[in-house]
Amino acid sequence: MRFRHPDGSTVHLAYCTNVHPAETLDGVLAQLRDHCEPVRRRLGRDRLGIGLWLARDAAHALVTDPSALRGLRTELEHRGLEVVTLNGFPYEGFGAEEVKYRVYQPDWADPERLAHTTDLARVLAQLLPDDVTEGSISTLPLAWRTAYDQERATAAHTALTTLAERLDALHELTGRSLRIGLEPEPGCTVETTRDALAPLTAIGHDRIGICVDTCHLATSFEDPHTALDALAQARVPIVKSQLSAALHAEHPHVPEVRAALAAFDEPRFLHQTRTLTAAGLRGTDDLGEALAGDALPDASPWRAHFHVPLHAAPAAPLTSTLPVLRAALTRLVGGPHPLTHHLEVETYTWQALPPELRPRARAQLTDGIAAELTLARDLLTDLGLKELP
Fold it and tell me: Which residues are CB-neighbours of 166 under 8 A, at least 6 positions away?
C-alpha cells in the first residue's frame, strides 16, 4: 500500500510474511497464492505491499538462479503484490515448533550472517518495482547479549562495514539504493535505540541504520519521542519501522492478571518481559520466568515481547501497547517530512496466541491481517497522508 505524504514523498506500508512460515522458494510462492493475494483481495486493493521473509535456502536459491528470481518477480506482479522491504532477522527455522534463542543465530560476528544478508540485498535489488529505487532490510541487532565479547564485536562491526561497501557497489551496478536497519530487541546486545547509537556511530555509514520496532520499543519502556529525538540528534537513519504492539499488564501482582499472562506463555517464541522500577529497567528472558516466583518485581506494570494483533487488544485485565505505536507513528510520518518511508506491520504470533484467540482457518487469518492493515491505513490517513491506488 502506498501513501502520499504532504511533502510529496511516498510512504510504503506492507505486512511481513514471516507470519506464514516457509523455508523454500516453493513455500514462498505458495504464501503469495494462499495468503498474500487473498489479503489484497480482502482489502479491495489492486496492489499490496508485503515485507518478504526469505529463509537462507530460499534466498540462496534466488541469488544463484536468475530464472527463479525472474519467476518470483513475475509471480509478485501477477498477484498484485510489491516488495520494497525484506525482513532479514530470522535466518531459518522460524516456523519450527520451538524457535526461542535460535532466532539470534547466526549473529553478525558469524560469516553466515554477512553472506545471507548480501544475498538478500541482491535479491531485493531485482524485486523492487520499476518506479522504486530505494529498498530496506531489517536485521538482528548484532547479537544476543551473552557470549558477545570485544573480539566478536569487532568482527560484527567489520562485517557491517563490508556489507555497506557491497551495497555501495550494488547501487553503482543496479541504480537501486538499499539500506540495512539493526532492529533493537530486548535481551540483545542492542536492546534499545540508545544502545544502537554507539555501534552505528562507530560504523558511520548511511547505508547502515536502525529499524524501529514499536513492540520492542514499548517492551523496553522507551518513550517514542525521546528515542526518536536521540536518533535524529545522532544522525542515525531510520531505515524502516515495524508496526507492532506488545502485551501490557498494569497490575502484575494481582492473581487474575498473572493467570491472564500465563495464557500467553507458549513454547515457540521468546517473550522477554520487562518492568520499569525506580532503580531502572528489570527483566527476564521469557514470560514464564517472570511468572515463576519473584524473578521480576511486580509493583509496576509489566510488558512482554509478544506481538499481539494491532486491531484486537487482549481482553481485560490485559491490554496492548498500541498507544506507543500511535505516538511513534505520529513522529515517524506525522511531521513536515517522514523520518522513514518504509512501514511494516509485523504480527508473526497469530498461531502462538492463546488457543481461543488463534485463527482456526486460513480465511480467519486473512481477515485478521486485513484488519491490522486497515487500522494502520486509518492511522496514516488521520495523520494527513493520502492513500494511493
Answer: 118, 121
Q: How far apart are CA 315 and CA 250, in angstroms?
A: 13
Q: Select from 87, 71, 205 the least CA-distant residue to 126.
A: 71
Residue 166 CB neighbour total at 10 angstroms: 17
Q: What is the pLDDT of residues 237-296, one digit of tens each?
A: 999 999 999 999 999 999 999 999 999 999 999 999 999 999 999 999 999 999 998 899
What is the distance between the alpha carbons of residues 385 and 6, in angstroms, rounded to a whole number?
A: 6
At position 190, the amino acid (one-letter code) is: V
Instruction: Report CA dihedral (234, 187, 216, 268) to the nearest 10 degrees.
Output: 150
Reported as a single tens digit per residue, the pLDDT across 30-66 is 999 999 999 999 999 999 999 999 999 999 999 999 9
State the Cα angle at 101 between 99 and 107, rounded to 5°: 115
- Distance, CA of 378 to CA of 73 (rounded, Å): 29
pTM: 0.97
Q: How far apart are CA 343 and CA 341, in angstroms?
A: 7
Look up cell 511513534; give the residue.
328
Identity (one letter) of the amino acid at 246?
Answer: A
For residues 233 and 81, what is the distance between their CA atoms, to the nearest angstrom? 36
Residue with cell 535456502: 57
**Which contiguous run of DSSP H or E holds residue 16?**
strand 10-16
Helices 193-203 and 150-174 meet at what angle, rounded to 10? 70
**Can you tell me the distance from the alpha carbon of 323 to that of 163, in angstroms, rounded to the nearest whole number?**
35
- Are 383 and 335 within 8 A, CB to CB? no
Q: Which of 122, 211, 103, 207 is nearest to 162 (CA)?
A: 207
Burial class (CB in 10 A: 0-12, 13-18, 19+), 130: exposed
Phi, psi of 46 (to 5 degrees): -80, -20
pLDDT tens by residue, 207-252: 999 999 999 999 999 999 999 999 999 999 999 999 999 999 999 9
CA pair distance 362, 360, nearest whole angstrom: 7
Q: How many CB atoms lie within 10 A of CB 254?
A: 13
